[in-house]
Amino acid sequence: MVLNRPTVDIKKKLVFGLILLTALLIMLVVRIGYIQVNMGDTLIERAYEQQTRDRLISPKRGSILDRNGAELASAETVWSVSVIHVRIDDEEKTARFLADTLELDYDEVYEKVSRKVALNRIKTKVEREAAMKIIEADLPGVVVDEDVKRIYPYNNLASQVIGFVGRDNQGIIGLEAKYDSFLKGKEGKILSQTDVKGYDVGKPDVRQPPTDGYDLLTSIDCTLQQYSGQVIKCAVEAKSAKRGLIVIMNPQNGEIYAMANYPDFNLNEPFKINDDELLKIWADLSSEERNEYLNRMWRNSAINDTYEPGSTFKIITSVAGLEEGVVTEDSPFFCKGYHTVGDRMIKCWRYPRTHGAQTFKEGVQNSCNPVFMMIAERLGAEKYYEYLYKFGFNKKTGIDLSGEASGIMYPVDKAGPVELATMSFGQSIAITPMHLLKAAAIAVNGGRNITPHFGIGLQDSDGNRVETFEYDGGQQVISEKTSETMREILESVVAEGTGNKTYIPGYRIGGKTATSEKLPRKRGKYIASFLAFAPADDPQVMALVLIDEPSGTYYGGSVAGPVMKTLMSNVLPYLGIEPRYTEEELELEEIKETEVPDFTGMNINEAKSLAVKNDFSAEKSGEGDTVKDQFPKNGEKIRKHSKIILYT
Ligand SMILES: [Zn+2]
Questions:
Q1: The domain spanning residue 136 has which CATH number?
Q2: Which of 148, 281, 324, 601 has its CA 20 to 30 A from that of 456?
Q3: Residues 250, 253, 258: CA angle, nearest 5 degrees
Q4: Is residue 9 predicted with pLDDT exceeding 60?
């Protein structure tokens, strides 16, 4: 037999094949080595993920606190109920029990219970009673985990400022959105280990605890905020106005004590519309229309909306004139009912009557438009704009809320004589109410810059301060001398001028009224406002009252003036600013004071009759029958006929 020996050709092929095979093997070994060395951790992690059913644990969201530690927003423990399918022994019985206890549809619960997935959530934000019942029943496969729910104990209080959170506890508007990163904390996890098929491997659950969020300490004073909310509500309703705003701020450092918009909304039900008429047609509206209404309801008019400020802006023109030396307190002016600019005749508000001869100080008291047109003329557009920029009207105030609007004004090279003249008394320029407060604060606080704000600092869950916020401020914007002169002039506006409806015996109050015609003009729509500060010689508090579209009388002095008086006569004693009466004032019946009795714990009707017996008027706030709190507090001395608010 002759063996067929392989030919050289075949040998070559075999050798080649062998080499190829070896090369492939080496590559495979290298690859496995690479996977083990470099990707081992990732793969182990991936397998672990596949074999666990993670249950997230919500962290406790930090509270939002007022300046005295009262909780304006807090976190309440609720529970979430889930099922682990493989551990369930009786699907129907489990579904029936959960549907009954959680008040859910049986078919929907059964569908979730019987679905073959590792973990299925049945319901979140479950209240204590139902959660405890489920925990006690201890059904196999049913797990109950702690969760967190945001609550706002004061409902409508400062709603547009505090803001609210979405379903995932993330801040949507207001301080909740601005400080979300500090408030939210970090999620934790519960890991229950299983094999690839989802069966238990007998190892205990691993709990990675969540990290709680920090509490936000704010400058809001809950009592002043409640009171401002009441006052603006009454004012808007009495004048059948479209809306209203009260802001109370410390003009020395920019801390805001209260910011009340009315209408407001309930933070615990932020998607519930606050307008009964609108509610009737709500179901027929498109989702765009609904969003538009909700956004409007949530708007904070102090920072989101601009308006022509009108005469309160004369404070700015006065400051620029005094600082540049084109006018002094006693400079003479003459009002003939109008002022001619180029070929335009621009009227004084008193036209066709006139103010005649007056000093600059009297011109401010009279709020005489020609006086301010003449000052702006003396300054010229470029100088005037320097002051608009110094006061920051061309940018945002820097307040710690999102969505703030910038001022709207003509570019300086487009500001002709007519634009300049109308700007001098607060037209042809649009700013937010917050812009005005910031500028007025600088004008009277000694001339120093401030940044309006709410956030003071952060504290951990044990109450330890972990951060104190710092704001831009302190730089001299105008001279102390000009600021002092402005305080004196603005005090005379309240004592003798158009602001006299805010005069309160014993208190030195400075201020300025404004009546702005809304754009487009000639529709008879106005904004009445009043800006005031006290004590006039050392301002500790500044407030703005703004009433949008009042019906009937619309002048700032008559509409917003009395509201400011009510506000200040309660706010000043509350802040510990004592009245100092002059000899003449001591003779006034109006100032005789009475001590406020303690109404707490009383039935509302008893409390009201006690108030009347003591020469006070009383107003109920709240839905209950028993008085829980009162403003002013028990023991405080207030004037006769003052209003006492009884919180039930
Ligand atoms: Zn005049």
A1: 3.90.1310.10
A2: 148
A3: 35
A4: yes
318-344 pLDDT, tens digit per residue, is 999 999 999 999 999 999 999 999 899
Domain range for 175: 53-218
Which of 218, 235, 254 represents a domain boundary (last residue)?
A: 218
Active site residues: 311
pLDDT-derived band of residue 589, with 50, 70 and 90 as boundaries? low
Side chain identity, residue 131:
A
Give how far Cα 608 sits from Cα of 181, 227, 234, 535, 628, Å.
46, 18, 18, 33, 14
pLDDT at 8 (0 to 100):
63
C-alpha of residue 421 to centroid of ligand 1, in Å: 14
Instruction: Quote the number of domains for the chain.
Output: 2
Pairing of strands 120-126, 455-459: unpaired
Q: How far is the CA of 350 from the centre of ligand 1 (A)?
A: 6
Residue at 15 is within a domain: no
Q: Ligand 1: distance of its center to the CA of 488 in Å?
A: 21
Report how far ligand 1's centroid is from the alpha carbon of 347 (Å): 8
In this prediction the pTM is 0.81
Contact in structure between 597 and 189 (CB atoms under 8 Å): no
What residues does 150 pair with on adjacent strands?
75
How far apart are the CA of 625 and the centre of ligand 1, in A?
Answer: 53
> Is there a domain that residue 546 lies in?
yes
In a domain, 22, yes or no: no
**Is 345 part of any domain?**
yes
Domain end, chosen from 176, 198, 218, is at: 218
